[in-house]
Amino acid sequence: MKKQILHTGMALLMMASVACPAIAAINLDRTRIIFNANDKSVSVMLENQSKDLPYLAQVWVENALGEKITSPLVALPPMQRIDAGQKSQIRILQLPETAALPKDRESLFYFNVREVPPKSEMANVMQVAIQSRVKLFFRPTELRKLLKGNWQEQLQVSRLQDGLKLTNPTPFYITVGYLGKDNKGNVPGFDSVMLAPFATESLTGGQYISDRYSLGYMDDYGGLQVNEYQCQTPQCQRISKEGKR
User: Fold this and answer.
1) The domain spanning residue 185 has which CATH number?
2) Do 168 and 91 reside in the same domain of the chain?
3) Single pTM value for the model
4) Do residues 172 and 106 lie in contact, with contact meaning Cβ atoms separated by under 8 Å?
């Protein structure tokens, strides 16, 4: 009987842990990072939003495959203490090896922050190190002339027999964070899609079939910009100016 009660208590504790996810104390000042090739470095601000505890902040850069790297980009300092309610700056530096990156398109990296809480004075307390991860786009100088206007509007939408196809004809990464149809809100089951430069992505299934779509893309500042598309032919046409949703 005691064993059964113990197992039940452990199960309830695990359920409570899932239902109440931990909230990060160390937060970034942005949701994406644009690193222009003509800049030697990019500064990112970290803030410890805890009111009473200091935290260690560990930072690093990963390549597009999620592998930790120290070249051609590196984040410094790799570890630092941030007191309660304080802010601190991280610098992401480009090394000479960035010269080997493509000049005709953006390169994708990831910037990571792991917070390390202070050791608890209480016994048998489980502490969780929360990690945040944001996209880091290295943008070649040669692409600056292509940034006039809202270049994300070049995203092409095509109707398929069983869904739709998204085509990115630009040298930039485009993240579609919202997809609605027939003015009925976000399509059930749709998750954000990141299209690499010059790439296509097909979304198939009955939930994606429509003659009218609303697509929201993420701009350089992390804002969601929404455009409407009408599909009277297989090649859909953008029918309205972008608007924030």
Assistant:
1) 2.60.40.10
2) no
3) 0.85
4) yes
Q: Are residues 181 and 130 in the same domain?
A: no
111 contacts 33 by C-beta, under 8 angstroms = yes
Say if 19 falls within a structural domain.
no
Q: Which tokens go with 104?
A: 């005709």
d(CA 50, CA 122): 19
Give the residue carrying structure tokens 């929201």: 216
Task: Look at residue 3 in the predicted model and tell me its pLDDT.
Answer: 42
* Counted domains in the chain: 2
Closest CA to 25 of 58, 45, 2, 54: 54
In terms of DSSP bridges, do strands 200-204 and 55-62 run parallel, antiparallel, or are they unpaired? unpaired
Separation CA 129–CA 32 (nearest Å) = 21
Q: Tell me which of 162-166, 183-187, 198-202 is least confident.
A: 183-187
pLDDT for residue 18:
39
Please give the pLDDT value at position 2.
41
Q: Which domain holds residue 206?
A: 149-244
Residue 105 shares a structural domain with residue 162: no
